[in-house]
Amino acid sequence: MLKRFFITCSGADKDLIYSCSNGEQNKYAGIGATVLFTALMAWIAASYALYTVFDSVYAATFFGFVWGSLIFNLDRFIVSTIRKRDRFWQEFTQATPRIVLAMIIAIVISKPLEIKIFQKEIDTVLLKEKNELAIANKKQVANYFQGDLDKNKAETDSLKSAITKKEKEVNALYGTYITEAEGTKGTMKLGKGPVYAEKRQKHDAALAELEALRKTNTEKIAAKEKQATTLQADLDKKVNESQPIIDKFDGLMARINALNKLPWLPSFFIMLLFLAIETSPIIAKLLSPKGEYDFKLEDSEMAIKTNLEQNNYQRELLKTTDAGIYDDVYAEIRNDRELYNYKKKKAIEMLEMQADRFSEKQKGVM
Length: 366
Hints:
The protein is mostly helical. It has three domains: about 1-120 and about 265-290, no CATH class; about 140-250; about 310-365, no CATH class. The protein is about 90% helix and about 0% strand. It has eleven helices and no strands. Keywords: Coiled coil, Membrane, Transmembrane, Transmembrane helix. InterPro entries: DUF4407.
């Protein structure tokens, strides 16, 4: 039962292969088993690759099965259409397009399985890339908000600087009127005279201005600091919102790129393994000698070809013979005087009718 199933997978003609020896049947059963297991590996590889895309086991399994069925059908077609020739190079030339197609299929199948085999190494590469992306993202977001933050800080510093400047001015006026009262500077007279009163008045006016400025600027500074806090919160929110996108940077394309950054030799040997598996049915059929099945298949095809050539030749003879007969028949009819006189009579009647119609039409116009 299993042997018959593998023979079906090989694409061999059942009527011919079951009439062959047991050894010939085993050869095609082996070819069919290779075709089947290659398709199963394609199913597994495609399912894993699509799982990284859909994140759904059922969707990945379904579309992987479709892909595996396609590979199975292609391999079965490739193997079943190779015909054994009398010369090896004729067979090789015939099989070259099929070998190229098998190589492409092998590369496509091997890549997802390479990704699975080297998953830990790929995850390490992806982690490093994610960290670099996260750092770069923070810098980009910070640069985006930096202008507003710098402007806010400059305005806040300007408000604080105005208060500090005014405080220095008030302190200077305070020192001026105190030293005037002590007689150490100014008029150098001890006591609170008119100059002292004038300087004290300037100090008090400046102090009032300082209090008003401090109150106004303190409110503005509080607003600016609140705005700075809001800007910083927006910056952090932007970074947090973009972080999940970076965390999901592990799709199929990212993993393929990460695989390419690993040492190429192990990946290359795995691809060679799948290449050997995929091309093995074709190579086996090319290298194997012409067997009983090949002779019977060639005999069946030649019988059909000969029958077609005979039928075409007979149709050509029939056409040529019929044409010659009709030529002779119409040649004899052409010399028949009775037929000639009859056609002449009918032609005269037709001309007379046309003349009568024309005459009646002309009379109606007049």
